[in-house]
Amino acid sequence: MFTRMFLEAAEGLLPPSEADEQSRTRLEQDWARWIRAMFPGHVSDERGEPVPFAPHQTRFWDRVWAIRPGVKPQPSLWGWPRGHAKSTSMEMACAAIGARRIRPYVLYVCGLQDQANDHVTNVKDMLANSDGIARYYPELSARAVGKYGHSEGWNRNRLSTASGFTVDAIGLDTASARGKKFKIHRPGLIILDDLDDQADSPAAVVKKLLALKNRILPAGAVDVAVIGGQNMVHPGSVFSLLFGLGPPNTEPDFLADRVTDGPVPAVEDLEYEPVAPGAPGGFEDRTRYVITGGRATWQGMDLAACQRIVDTEGISAFLQERQHEVSAPPGGMYDHVEFRRCRWNEVPWAALERVVVWVDPAVTDTKASDAHGIQADGLASDGTIYRFFSWEERTSPKDVLRRAILKAVELGADTVGVETDQGGDLWRTAYDEACRELVEEGRVAERDLPAFRSEKAGAGHGSKAHRGGLMLVDYERGRFVHVIGTHAVLERALKRFPKTKPLDLADAAYWAWHDLDTGSAAPATSHSDSSFGSMENAGFGSIGGGF
User: Fold this and answer.
1) Which pLDDT belongs to residue 249?
2) Per-residue pLDDT tens for 70-96?
3) How far apart are CA 98 and CA 19, in angstroms?
């Protein structure tokens, strides 16, 4: 028995050749090459072709590869859609940390112990079945054995390798990690994965938060690195709160220096519409929801794949699991409103008198910033306001202006308006530069550029809630019609208003309505009224962050 265990433990533990050591050193200088060499099957499609990394995946790996021994990095939390290899990336990151000897001891933390066990088993299988690991890191692919040949951990909840690398599975539902050590090591890496469940009650969320704060995080070494990933499964989930997306004053006070990235949707600017039974592109006997616009954020889950998911899982599950579009808590200002809707081909285009696009901006593009909101509306001759396009995300001030201008040109809007309480007249300079860039890029003809308007909420318009209440009256009168496409984005924003952030799209909707209803925004100035300027020279470089 002893001989068999010893041979099993020692199998393949010959050190790498000098040539392999040189190759290993080169591979470790480039995370993408390293991943494809160690785990090619995890980053390839069904034909074995490498799948390019998405921008958010690239940012994740840049941070993982920057973790250094003895240096405590900022915690980083990642909001990815289901299907974007979130857990696989966390598991590969765990393996990479061990292979490169960055941290000797890892806690893999999940909401449930069974989930954590499964992830640790996946890491074990990655190490045991990788030809690259066996070649370049042979001790990492073999189990650790003690003095008498007994395995020191190669089971469902612990992975302990001959290299001295150990991973423990911790479920928030069962285990305590406070004071946890392996031999002389405290956890140098804590991975938070699959913490949330759609069925979590507020009490369950509080229990998880307390477990993280009082039991898991205190277990870490002085240089502990914390990385975590999750899609936003409901507005009050642990990750929703950590991302600042919950109700006011609910953001946790731990991991205060965290960096958050996302939430990243599967499809940016998603537009979809129902197709009636028997209609072209639909199903014979039931309504089909069809994606009609947007951009997939990862080639590994393109629009065709997203449509297949919608067909299989349903549009509501897709919006929740892949788009992070979760129901707002009850009690919002517009909760009682039954929104009127129509299709694009039902809009009375010939009767439209004006179309406007309004922006409620943030002046920075950090992950702690508010979101930007864009609303495009049109006024018909009978007084009906058609809401054509709604958008709300964190991005740079420059990007939101470019998006607004392009949408205005697409819809034939006469105006792009901006709430300018923060930044003041600098927004006009920023707008002019965005126009100049779009003209130079050939994306917009100068003759088609819309005029610029501005408004200041502080100039007698009252609070956000007051402004929302004014627009609510027209909703109750049935004046608004939401054009099917991005309507769900707007309706979620209105239903959570003013209880839960972000509130920016609801405010952009107010400004568009106010402009069409009264025409009393600051007088429009054409693009040619102001020479193109520089955002940096105008001072936007100091407050804009992303310019």
Assistant:
1) 80
2) 999 999 999 999 999 999 999 999 999
3) 21
**Domain interval for residue 409:** 341-518
pLDDT digits (tens, 9 = 90+) for 478-503: 999 999 999 989 998 998 888 877 88
Dist CA 343 CA 357 (whole Å): 19
pLDDT digits (tens, 9 = 90+) for 349-366: 999 999 999 999 876 554
- The tokens 């639909």 sit on which residue? 282
Q: Distances from the Cα of 278 to the Cαs of 282, 290, 292, 459, 498, in angstroms?
A: 6, 14, 18, 53, 41
- 175: Cβ–Cβ under 8 A, 6 or more apart, which residues? 113
CATH number, domain with residue 159: 3.40.50.300
Supply 150's token pair.
């007994």
Taking each helix axis from N to C terminus, what angle separates 86-99 and 113-129, rounded to the nearest 10 degrees?
A: 60
* Residue of 282, 280, 308, 314 lying closest to 296 (CA atoms): 308
What gap in Å lies between CA 244 and CA 72, rounded to an integer?
23
Helices (H), 165-217: 202-211
Integer Cα distance of 378 and 353 in angstroms? 7
For the chain, the domain total comes to: 3
Tell me how far apart the alpha carbons of residues 396 and 547 are, in angstroms, rounded to a whole number. Answer: 7
In a domain, 529, yes or no: no
From CA 261, how far away is CA 191, in angstroms rounded? 16
491: domain CATH number is 3.30.420.240
Boundary residue ending a domain (216, 236, 261): 261
